[in-house]
Amino acid sequence: MVEVKEMERKVIAEQLNDLLANYQLIYGNVRGFHWNVKGEKFFELHVKFEELYNDLFLKIDELAERILTLGFTPVHSFDDYLEMSEIQATKNVSSARETVQSVLDGLLILLSKQRQLLRLSGDKEDEGTSALMSDYIREQEKLVWMYRAFLS
């Protein structure tokens, strides 16, 4: 077994922390959409958003634990999340179309960051991070297709 060097682990952990911050923001947004969505698609989206935020919650924990496994500290303050995240916090969004579009936009940001991490972790022979990113990408590509279909 070849161990990933500390400087390489640090670079990966920094990108994982950035991803973690983005996950925290999309999680908060989706939780709010679950509570606040209105209209004829309420029942459908209320359930879907609950499924999604539960999945995001598990991924947040996995990301933090991966950062710890690499020997670094996961960011854990909302100030850090807001400062680091490309995904922005949403407020007062309750229409089906707007909530789904926001989720879709957030997923596309996550996918881009995860693909970058997949390339980086592959180059550094960090199989643990590569496997995690590959799993997330596979799941979220399907979600992107589904949310796009909802909006069309």
Structural description of this entry:
- The chain starts with 5 loop residues before the first helix and ends with a helix.
- The longest helix has 31 residues, at 6-36.
- α1 packs across α3, α1 runs antiparallel to α4 (96-123) and α4 (96-123) packs antiparallel against α5.
- The protein is elongated and about 55 Å long.
- The chain has helices spanning 6-36, 42-69, 78-84, 96-123, 127-151.
- The protein has five helices and no strands.
- The model has no long low-confidence stretch (mean pLDDT 96).
- The protein has a single domain, classed as Ferritin, core subunit, four-helix bundle (Ferritin, Up-down Bundle), CATH 1.20.1260.10.
- Helix content is 78%, strand content 0%.
- By secondary structure, it is mainly α.
Helix-strand pattern: HHHHH
* Spans of at least 5 consecutive residues with low confidence: none
Radius of gyration: 16 Å
Give me the CATH fold name: Ferritin
Give the N-terminus to C-terminus distance in angstroms.
48 Å
